[in-house]
C-alpha cells in the first residue's frame, strides 16, 4: 500500500520500521492519540498510541491501552507504534505499572497476528530498565528509547536498542532533566551511536525535518504540531485553540513528579510552580487530573496544557493527510535547494 512504499526521504530508519516518510507522531500520554496515530500512519509516517494515565486501577488502564491498540489497527493497515514511559523498580527491573501496560500490549499482539505485524515498534521513555530490550526483541518488536543525553543514548545503544530518540529540552510534556536542546544534542548523539537517531522536540514543518537530517538525525518525532490537527478528535477543541494561540514565552516548566514538564503558563501551572517553589510536591494524581481537565473539558486555564515551545510557531489547525506530504515536499525542496559552494574559494 502507498503508506509503505519508499518516499523521497526514505532511509535506514524508514526501511527498518517499514514506513514511507521519516516522520513520527510521538506518544502523548495520558491523552488518547489512537485516531491521530492511525491518521499519521495512513499518511506514511509512524503514528503512536499513548498510555492512558490513571489514578485508579492499573489493570483497567491497561485494558484501555489494549483496546486503543486494537482500535488503531482497525483504522489503519500501516505500521504503528505504542509509547510506554517505563521506570525502574528498586532492583533496576521494569517498574510494576509499566510491566502491566507492556503485558497488555504484548498479549494483544500474541492474540492477533495481523495486529502484531502492524504494531511493530515499542517506544519507551523515562528510564531504561535492565532486560527490557531483550524482552522486546524476543516478542519480535523494534525497540526505540527516548533519551536526553549522549550518556543515556550510549547506555541504550549498548543494551541493544534499535533506535534512539534524541529529546531536546524545548519539547512538550516531560522534558529531560539534562536540559539539552536538540540543536546541540542531536549531532552529539548521532556521532556517538551507530543506530538510527530520531530528533524529538521543536519540529513543526519541512524545514525542521531538513534541519534534523542535516544534524545527523534519521527522522523527526513531533508531538505538539500533531496535537493541533483536525485528526485529533479525542482532545477538546479548546486544547487545540490554546496551542494555536500560544506565543513565544507562553510556555513554562513545572518541576515535580517525573521531572520537568513543559506546559502552557496559566493559573494551574502557576499554582503548581508556587507549590514546588514553596518546597511542596505536585502529586502524580493531581497532575493527571489536571491534564484531563485540559484535554477532556478544554479548560486551558485550570488544566495543564502540555505543549512544546514550538507552539509559538503554530498558527493553524491542519489535517494530517494534507500536512504530512506537504512537510515532506518542503523538506525535500530545502535539501535539494542547498546551494553548492564553489570548491576553491579561500575563506
Ligand atoms: C501533550 C503531550 C503529552 C506527552 N506525553 C508523553 C508521554 O506520555 N510519553 C513520552 O515519552 N513523551 C510524551 N510527550 C513528549 C512527546 O512524545 C514528544 O517527544 C514531544 O512532544 C516532542 O516535542 P514537540 O512537542 O516540540 O514536538 C508528550 C508531549 C505532549 C505535548
Helices and strands: which structural class? Answer: alpha/beta
Number of separate domains: 2
How does the overall form come out from the CA principal axes? Answer: globular
Task: Spell out which ligands are present.
Answer: flavin mononucleotide
Short synopsis of the structure:
This protein is of the alpha/beta class.
Task: Describe this structure as you would to a colleague.
The chain is α/β, with parallel strands linked by helices and 347 residues long. It has two domains: 2-234 and 314-332, Aldolase class I (TIM Barrel, Alpha-Beta Barrel); 237-297, no CATH class. The chain contains 14 helices and eleven strands. The protein has helices at residues 12-17, 34-42, 58-75, 96-111, 113-118, 132-138, 150-158, 182-192, 206-214, 224-227, 237-245, 267-277, 284-297, 320-336; strands at 23-25, 47-50, 80-85, 119-125, 142-147, 163-167, 173-174, 197-200, 219-222, 251-254, 261-264. The strands form two sheets. It has an eight-stranded parallel beta sheet with strand order 1-9-8-6-5-4-3-2. Strands 7-11-10 form a three-stranded antiparallel beta sheet, covered by helices on one side. Helix 6 (132-138) links the parallel strand 4 (119-125) and strand 5. The longest helix is centred in the first third of the chain and has 18 residues, at 58-75. Flavin mononucleotide binds next to strand 3, strand 9 and helix 10.
Amino acid at each position: 500500500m502507498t503508506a509503505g512504499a519508499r518516499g523521497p526521504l526514505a532511509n535506514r530508519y524508514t526501511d527498518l520500521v517499514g514506513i514511507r516518510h521519516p516522520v513520527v507522531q510521538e506518544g502523548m500520554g495520558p491523552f488518547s492519540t489512537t485516531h491521530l496515530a492511525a491518521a499519521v500512519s495512513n499518511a506514511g509516517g509512524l503514528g503512536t498510541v499513548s498510555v492512558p494515565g490513571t489514578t485508579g486501577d492499573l489493570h483497567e488502564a491497561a485494558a484501555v491501552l489494549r483496546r486503543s491498540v486494537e482500535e488503531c489497527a482497525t483504522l489503519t493497515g500501516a505500521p504503528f507504534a505504542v509509547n510506554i514511559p517505563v521506570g525502574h523498580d528498586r532492583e533496576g527491573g521494569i517498574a510494576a505499572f509499566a510491566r502491566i501496560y507492556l503485558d497488555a500490549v504484548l498479549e494483544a499482539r500474541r492474540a492477533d497476528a495481523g495486529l502484531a505485524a502492524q504494531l511493530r515498534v515499542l517506544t519507551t521513555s523515562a528510564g531504561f530498565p535492565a532486560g527490557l530490550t531483550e524482552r522486546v526483541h524476543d516478542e519480535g518488536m523494534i525497540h526505540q528509547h527516548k533519551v536526553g543525553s549522549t550518556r543515556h543514548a550510549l547506555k541504550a545503544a549498548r543494551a541493544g536498542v534499535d533506535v534512539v530518540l534524541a529529546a531536546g529540552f524545548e519539547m512538550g510534556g516531560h522534558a529531560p532533566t539534562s536540559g539539552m536542546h536538540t540543536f546541540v544534542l542531536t549531532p552529539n548523539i548521532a556521532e556517538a551511536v551507530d543506530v538510527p537517531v530520531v530528533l524529538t522536540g521543536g519540529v513543526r514543518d519541512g524545514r525542521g525535518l531538513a534541519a534534523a537530517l542535516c544534524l545527523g538525525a534519521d527522522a523527526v518525532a513531533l508531538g505538539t504540531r500533531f496535537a493541533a490537527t483536525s485528526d485529533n478528535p479525542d482532545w477538546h477543541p479548546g486544547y487545540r485553540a490554546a496551542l494555536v494561540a500560544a506565543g513565544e514565552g507562553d510556555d513554562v516548566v513545572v518541576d515535580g513528579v517525573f521531572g520537568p514538564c513543559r506546559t502552557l503558563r496559566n493559573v494551574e501551572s502557576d499554582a503548581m510552580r508556587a507549590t514546588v517553589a514553596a518546597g511542596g510536591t505536585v502529586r502524580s494524581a493531581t497532575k493527571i487530573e489536571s491534564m484531563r481537565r485540559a484535554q477532556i473539558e478544554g479548560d486551558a486555564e485550570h488544566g495543564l496544557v502540555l505543549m512544546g515551545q514550538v507552539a509559538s510557531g503554530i498558527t493553524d489547525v491542519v489535517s494530517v493527510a494534507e500536512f504530512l506530504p506537504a512537510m515532506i515536499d518542503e523538506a525535500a525542496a530545502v535539501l535539494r535547494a542547498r546551494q553548492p559552494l564553489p570548491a576553491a574559494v579561500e575563506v
